[in-house]
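Today's session is about reading a structure prediction critically. Students often jump straight to the picture, but the first step is always the sequence itself: look for stretches that repeat, for charged clusters, for runs of hydrophobic residues. Only then move on to the predicted structure, which in these notes is written as discrete structure tokens rather than atom positions. Here is the chain we will use throughout the hour.
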Amino acid sequence: MKANEALSKIPINKVGIQDARGLAWKRQAAQIAAILILIAIPVTGLFRIDVSSGFVVLGHQIWFSDFEIVFGFWLAVAATMIMVYSTVGTAFCGWACPQNTFSSLANKLTAQHLGKRAVVDWENRDRAKVAANKNHVGNWLLLTIKLLAMSLLLAIIPMLYFFPPQAIWSFITFQPDERLAASLYWIYTVFVLVTFVNLAVIRHFMCRYMCIYRMWQYLFKTKDTLHIEYDEARRADCDKCSYCLTQCMVEIDPRATTQYDSCTNCGACITACDNVHSKKGVPGLLKFKLGPRTGMRHDPTKSVASVRERLFWVVPVWLLGVGLFAWGLWTYQPYHLTVYQSGPSIQGQVNEYRINLASKMLEPVTLNVSVEGLNSENFALTAPSYRFEGAGRGDLFLTLRDLPAGLHSFVVRAKAENGWSTNFRIQHFVAGAKYDK
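Below is the predicted structure for this chain, in token form.
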């Protein structure tokens, strides 16, 4: 039996050591879940953007005139983001951001096909180099094909937020669809090229130097925001070891993080440190911490608010947004009716009205129209109902005739098959000898 095999059979009792692989698979699961949620939101109809009207939520068009819903929604979202920034900080970047997820995947593919040192290194700090035994046309071509395939798939995701799944399927299968513009394939091609350049040459440089989202998060950090904590008392345990630094995707030293740095709270450094020290039967020197930072000679957080102080005003704003959103949904009107004069003027008298109907629902519906307050011989409708096959607008025309001189009050009523009803009151004046004086 070889010495290594004999040593491997010696049982080691590790007390109080967390599984070093636990953090890595949890982060990977969170990243996959975030991508699936990003796709599921438009596919299920939970939220979609309608360029012509505003937004679509669960088959309901939300117009910009639905002030309570629109303003309440974005107010609640903004307050939620501030609460997230104030507590877990940049955890979204490390655990859910698609840019980070696919940049990491691109790095793995590059290492697989070109070698571990074949990384994107614009600053020439890592001495990046393609492995000699993998520097072949076939390897480069295979990597390019995989990155291009990823780009083709990723470019579809933003389109899902503007078109229903049926239209996207028609787009993918090259079937004609009236909902798709002829220029859409050119727009998609631009999306693919931008995504490919991002995956091929930018990757985590976006996180380090170009991410506006991360800069926005800096504005809302608190004294207690989640951060990487280093066990300074055990510094001797990591002498001559920089494994955690080599695993950091933004290339900062996790042993010396500050209040404002490029850390994405991904936890890769924690996993790396745990892996090294687990072999010695002791826990790593890095961990996540919610609360004030320790061991800092100059405290830069003296003028920074605490989580409690931040939530004191953010929570009421969030409640206001949720309340407005809920009220908007409660008073939501799925159909609209507007009536106004139209048509030519005959001897200064306009006897024609345009009845404008609108449906904010994506499913088919018929709106029945009736006129109350006038005798049937005194008016004519172009049709007693209007059929909508989806969200949209339509017009009917009401013509008045043989009305005596005077002021006439009548109501135009619209009623849907599901019981919804509304009306529009009209005051119509007919001139005559008695009223011309």
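Discussion point for the tutorial: The CA atoms of residues 8 and 81 lie 49 Å apart.
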